[in-house]
Write a structure and sequence with these properties.
- The chain has 485 residues and is of the alpha/beta class.
- It has three domains: 262 residues, Rossmann fold (3-Layer(aba) Sandwich); 98 residues, Anticodon-binding domain of a subclass of class I aminoacyl-tRNA synthetases (Four Helix Bundle (Hemerythrin (Met), subunit A)), CATH 1.20.120.640; 52 residues, no CATH class.
- Helices cover 44% and strands 15% of the residues.
- The protein contains 14 helices and 15 strands.
- The strands form five sheets. A four-stranded parallel sheet has the order 4-3-9-10, with helices on both faces. The chain has a four-stranded antiparallel sheet with strand order 5-6-7-8. Strands 12-11-13 form a three-stranded mixed sheet.
- Strand 9, helix 6 and strand 10 form a beta-alpha-beta unit.
- The longest helix is centred in the C-terminal third of the chain and has 25 residues.
- The chain is elongated and about 90 Å long.
């Protein structure tokens, strides 16, 4: 089937047709680098990582742009998030930005999230933003007021088409403090004048100042992807005012469509003191950083947990939910690990038990559900159903040829590894995987020899020492296999 995407702009599932055959231009709103990333952020970026991976797996050439906001993200009070945190820590703003940007990429790398092709910074694209503001003023969509520039929402009849929030329904003061200098309470800042104490400031036709939050994404998306591009992604909590403002200012400046497909991820929720799920956020203090989560769970387990819910739906975080995800991942990866171990001693010939038809069926089902708006939960279900049958085959006691085991391994590497990012391509144990795997295999052989010599005390000692080190042995009819706990 053709790939279908639920387009938030229009509220319907649509066939995906790129502007240019075989190529996809995609922009995702990136982080404001003013603190460590929490796993609520990880939900969004894991979701789009899998989307990009699947598009590429499907043969499409994807140009993936994800910005870094290092200036201009305003709080409801009118304060810049970067400056507020820098003031709290008594750091230079750019020291703060560099520190948290490095940790953001480290956290995403640790989660197996492939880096965007381009990660532009807002502060490095001030000329492009000023030029866009000048265009909006010239076309009558923006006005200057005491050194700041505001977008006039009454000049754009389509304002609110993404979120379905119309001007008459909006409240004064949404997202940024209302200033007397604005013509309408709903108007939003394109450029803000810099007060004397404001450190981040640039020269502009309207005096020294800094860009508003929304103009950043519009200017950078246009610079790298053109006036109109295929997919715009982000978190659902930014639909208003950020995404809504992006659309209206971009389309008014360019007289062209902005993004053709809008994809928004559901939030990560945490139960409050009454057990009611609320959004994980820094402001509420109910967050778990990526670093904290990785201290307890493997990155593949965190990804498995996130992918158990459709990208557009909210998901509730809890220790029990992560533990359940770990059990599900271990069941799936256990089959992969066993197949890989059996490959080392399996006969090269195929005894007719090809299993290839079942692998082809699993791949077909996987592709079909991923083509239906990237339905990762159903893709995981397809892999788990395959895992049940793989385990039955591997534990049947029959001789399985190396070609069969290689086909199984390839299927999991491609679907679970290349696309979902939950199957490591090689067996990973700590420090030096290849060396430690060899040492473990050597100990298994020494234990087998001890058992053959009826030296059961030595055999038990080897097993117990490996258990103490976190390696579990399983004696089977066709030999001993091991796993790292």
């Amino acid at each position: 089937m053709a790939l279908k995407i639920f387009n938030v702009l229009g509220r319907e599932k649509q066939d995906f047709t790129p502007l240019e055959a075989g190529r996809v231009n995609m922009y995702v709103c990136g982080p404001t680098v003013q603190d460590y990333s929490h796993i609520g952020h990880a939900k969004t970026y894991i979701s789009f990582d899998v989307i990009v991976r699947y598009l590429r797996y499907s043969g499409l050439d994807v140009l993936y742009v994800q910005n870094i906001t290092d200036v201009g993200h305003m709080l409801d009070s009118g304060d810049d998030r970067i400056l507020k945190k820098a003031s709290e820590l008594q750091w230079k703003p750019m020291k703060l930005v560099e520190h948290y940007a490095r940790h953001y990429f480290q956290d995403m790398d640790a989660l197996g999230i492939q880096r965007p092709d381009i990660s532009p910074r807002a502060s490095a694209h001030i000329p492009e933003q000023i030029k866009m503001v000048e265009t909006l003023i010239r076309k009558g969509h923006a006005y200057v007021a005491e050194g700041s520039v505001y977008f006039d929402v009454t000049s754009a009849p389509d304002y609110g088409k993404l979120s379905n929030r119309r001007i008459e329904k909006q409240e004064a003061g949404s997202r940024e403090a209302v200033r007397d200098e604005k013509r309408h309470a709903e108007d939003f800042a394109l450029w803000k004048r810099a007060e004397p104490e404001h450190i981040l400031r640039w020269e502009s036709p309207w005096g020294e100042g800094f860009p508003g939050w929304h103009i950043e994404c519009s200017a950078m998306a246009m610079k790298y992807l053109g006036q109109t591009f295929d997919i715009h992604g982000g978190g659902v909590d930014n639909i208003f005012p950020h995404n809504e403002s992006e659309i209206v200012q971009s389309e008014c400046a360019n007289d062209a469509d902005f993004a053709r497909y809008w994809m928004l991820t559901g939030s990560l929720m945490v139960p409050d003191s009454s057990g009611i799920p609320v959004k994980m956020s820094k402001s509420l203090g109910n967050f778990v950083t990526v670093k904290q989560a990785l201290e307890r769970y493997r990155p593949e387990v965190i990804r498995y947990f996130m992918l158990n819910t459709h990208y557009s739906s909210p998901i509730v975080y809890s220790g029990d939910a992560l533990d359940a995800a770990q059990a599900g991942w271990e069941r799936l990866y256990g089959a992969v690990r066993l197949a890989r171990q059996m490959m080392t001693t399996a006969p090269s010939s195929d005894d007719g038990n090809s299993f290839q038809a079942r692998l082809d069926e699993a791949r077909s089902t996987f592709n079909e559900v991923m083509d239906d708006d990237f339905n990762a939960p159903k893709a995981l279900a397809a892999l788990q159903e395959l895992t049940r049958e793989v385990n039955t085959l591997l534990n049947s006691g029959t001789t399985i040829g190396k070609p069969v085991l290689e086909a199984i391994n390839t299927t999991y590497n491609q679907l679970g590894g290349t696309v979902l990012g939950i199957v490591p391509t090689t067996e990973s144990v700590s420090v030096d995987g290849a060396r430690e795997a060899g040492l473990i295999q050597l100990l298994i052989e020494l234990r087998a020899q001890a058992r053959k010599n009826k030296n059961f005390a030595e055999s038990d000692r080897i097993r117990n020492e490996l258990t103490r080190l976190g390696v579990t042995l399983e004696d089977r009819a066709d030999g001993t296999v091991w796993r790292v706990n």
